[in-house]
Amino acid sequence: MSENINEETQITKPATEETTSAERTRGGVYYRPNCDIVETAEELLVRADMPGAKGEEINVNFEDGMLSIHAPVKPRQDEEVEYLLHEYGVGDYYRTFQVSEAIDAGKIEAQYAEGVLTLHLPKAESAKPRKIAVKPGG
Question: Which long-range contacts (CB under 8 A, 24 or more apart) does 76-83 make?
Answer without folding.
Answer: 76/52
